[in-house]
Amino acid sequence: METRTMDPIIAMNGVSKWFGDFQVLKNLDFSVDPGERVILCGPSGSGKSTLIRLINRLEEHQEGTIAVNGIELDDDPHKIEQVRADVGMVFQHFNLFPHLTVLENCSIPLRLVQKKSAREAEELAMKYLSRVRIPDQAGKYPGQLSGGQKQRVAIARSLSMCPRIMLFDEPTSALDPEMVKEVLDTMVELARDGMTMVCVTHEMGFAKEVGDRIVFMDCGQIIESAPPAEFFGAPRTDRAREFLGQVLSQH
Ligand SMILES: Nc1ncnc2c1ncn2[C@@H]1O[C@H](COP(=O)(O)OP(=O)(O)OP(=O)(O)O)[C@@H](O)[C@H]1O
Q: What is the 3-state secondary structure (H, E, C) of 56-83?
């Protein structure tokens, strides 16, 4: 039995979701404390992306409750907007606008969503581009950047909105191996600064270094949830052992 000392910033209870007839998530309980770093792992198709996308309502659940920062998600657009203001998300494929410069990619959302002035938006965007160590790329277009640089722009864009939670959905899996480290290093720094993070990743070295807790999913269920030392040192289920055997042999 887990003992908790604070209210979770993400609380999912009894959550189920279907795509048509296919039940992708099955009666999940999942919570994250403020400042906690949770790594979601599991075989392909186990429901990790779907779970993470429920947190900012990119997908809708059909059963159970999901509360983020105390706001329970339902069809109310105002609540969804409030939750999205608190939650940044970084995807596998960056999702940058190719016709906008790096600086515009980061500053335009600040003007449109947070109604900042052009000058304030650019200053904030530059602050976060510096934080991810690419201020010198501000005038370039995404097509002129490496994959690792593009992903750091995506992280800077999210951070400049000042989220309380960052979600990462396989942020390094579209990158060449030599680019992976620079993105993971950026995420490690973010974790050191105390950001609440939920990361779907197969990077088990990163998971060990950064994770407070590893959540292992299979077939739409949470099978294990344990600190890294326990999960990697002594997985309790055959399914987790088999998964670890596969990913550790690939990396
Ligand atoms: N929009 C959708 N419509 C129908 N089925 C979907 C949809 N999105 C996901 N699925 C299915 O739901 C299951 C879980 O998908 P999900 O992407 O959440 O898994 P995952 O664990 O993140 O997998 P991966 O590691 O391969 O990204 C898969 O069988 C997938 O085909």
A: CCCCCCCEEEEEECCEECCCCHHHHHHH
In tens, the pLDDT along 21-44 reads 999 999 999 999 999 999 999 999
Q: Which residue, judged by its Cα, is nearest atom 7 of ligand 1?
A: 19
**Cβ burial 212-234 (10 Å sphere, 16+ → b, else e):** ebbbbbbebebbbbbebeebbee
Q: State yes or no: pLDDT of 250 exceeds 80.
A: no
Ligand 1 site, residue 97, Cβ cutoff 6 A: no
CB 216 within 8 A of CB 203: no
**Cα dihedral sign for 197, 198, 200, 206?**
positive
Predicted complex ipTM exceeds 0.85: yes
With a pLDDT cut of 90, the percent of the chain lying above it is 85
Rounded to the nearest angstrom, the distance between the alpha carbon of 192 and the centre of ligand 1 is 31
CA–CA gap between residue 199 and residue 92 (Å, rounded):
11
Query: pTM of the predicted model, to two decimals?
Result: 0.93
| Cβ–ligand 1 contact at 151 (below 6 Å) | no
Are 183 and 148 within 8 A, CB to CB?
yes
Nearest CA to ligand 1 atom 31: 45
**Residue 17 CA to ligand 1 centre (angstroms):** 11
The single residue listed with the structure tokens 């579209």 is 174
* 120 Cβ neighbours under 8 A, 6+ residues apart: 110
Say whether pLDDT at 1 is over 80. Answer: no
Structure-block tokens of residue 172: 């390094």
Nearest ligand 1 atom to the CA of 47 is 18
